[in-house]
Design a protein that fits this description.
The structure is a single chain. With about 375 residues, the chain is α/β, with parallel strands linked by helices. The protein is about 30% helix and about 25% strand. The chain is built from 13 helices and 18 strands. α6 crosses α7 and α9 packs parallel to α10. The longest helix has 13 residues. The chain starts with a strand and ends with a strand.
Length: about 375
């Protein structure tokens, strides 16, 4: 079938993106779903910093690639052997397809799925195939198995979680990345306990979801950290107990207002200085979680003696250490009960043709979660 998709052909075009236009909305050929694959009509997609990281080269991916990884849509057709979804289902896309049979999947850690990591890096579906071609017949790579900035997408059935058809598309989309990653970093990776203290460094869509999750976990003190005053004000309006502007003294300020450091610090800004702040703000015996993704060449050093003497724990968190088939329904239940008001994180709605302008808004650091309404 013919459909439209936002295609990245060249990495590193400069901002403003409204002028350099790194994404071109093109008519592409989408092949039918193969075995274990599903054709989805994409309804809404979230514009995430991870998309911007591919555009600017911080997350190296093969090009040409159809971008987009946070989305919700409706199943139109299923390939041979598909059993987990059926035509007409409403689904959320998940950007790490868990194969269900590798060692991490067997251990209940599908975020670390080995075939999923291989296919995502190669720009293929979990099957190893590419199902998109441009007008000249050239293959297009898939972004994290989703390529959701498109009217239609073919994905692995393992990239989908069925949701309540009453859930609005715009809201459903953000559960596939922002909520899964941010709330998961707090609840799954950090195991935030009621009565504990937590700092969230970086208040994008993922970071704000982490703030909401900390409140849902009944953390006693929730300290929000960002460079932008409007994001700090938003975090306070959501229920954060404290807001701290990010600068060279931030860690010391957090240690002072928390009485010696927080039990859990979660870095979701995607920068080494932000992670350094989170680490220094963590108390002795505490845990620092990083879910941000700076450029792979950037490094951070630590004293092993401090790790020993302070009994510190450092954890990475990818897609919130989540089991999507378990956690998306769980987080949706928290939302229904009013304990995870994710609708407060949603910002401007834009069309697919305005996606480059949306990248500029995203890069400014001030935007709430922009939603690309597709069909």
């Amino acid at each position: 079938m013919r459909t439209r998709a936002a295609v990245l052909r060249e990495v590193g075009r400069p901002a403003p993106f409204a002028h350099s236009r790194p994404l071109s909305v093109e008519e592409v050929q989408l092949d039918p779903p193969g075995p274990g694959e599903v054709l989805v009509a994409v309804r809404s997609a979230g514009l995430c910093h991870s998309d911007l990281s591919v555009v600017n080269g911080n997350r190296p991916r093969p090009v040409p690639m159809a971008l987009g990884h946070e989305a919700a849509g409706e199943v139109l057709e299923v390939g041979a052997g598909v059993s987990s979804v059926r035509q007409g289902d409403h689904v959320v896309m998940v950007f790490v397809p868990g194969c269900g049979s590798c060692r991490p999947c067997d251990e209940g850690r599908p975020a670390l799925c080995e075939p999923g990591a291989v296919s995502n890096t190669a720009g293929t579906l979990l099957s190893g195939h590419r199902r998109m071609r441009d007008a000249k017949g050239g293959e297009l790579h898939h972004h994290l198995g989703c390529s959701a900035f498109a009217e239609h997408a073919v994905v692995s059935e393992h990239s989908l979680v069925v949701i309540d058809p009453e859930l609005p598309w715009d809201l459903a989309a953000v559960f596939g990345c922002a909520v899964l990653t941010g709330a998961g970093a707090v609840i799954n990776t950090g195991q935030a306990a009621p009565g504990s203290t937590i700092a969230v460094v970086g208040l994008g869509g993922v970071g704000l979801a982490a703030v909401l999750a900390a409140l849902a976990q009944d953390c006693r003190q929730v300290i929000a950290v960002d460079v932008h005053a409007d994001k700090l004000a938003l975090a306070l309006s959501l229920g954060a107990t404290d807001a701290v502007e990010a600068n060279q003294d931030t860690a010391e300020v957090i240690r002072e207002i928390s009485g010696g450091g927080v039990d859990l610090a979660v870095e979701l800004a995607g920068s080494v200085p932000a992670f350094e702040t989170a680490y220094r703000a963590t108390r002795r015996g505490g845990t620092t979680v990083t879910g941000g993704l700076p450029h792979p060449a950037e490094l951070w050093s630590v004293s092993p003696a401090q790790l020993v003497a302070d009994e510190r724990t450092i954890k990475g968190s990818y897609i919130g250490s989540s089991v999507p088939s378990r956690d998306i329904p769980s987080f949706l239940a928290l939302h229904r009960n009013g304990r995870l008001p994710v609708e407060k994180l949603l910002g401007e709605r834009i069309g697919l043709d305005a996606i480059n302008e949306g990248l500029d808004t995203l890069a400014s650091g001030h935007a709430l979660r922009q939603i690309v309404r597709i069909s």
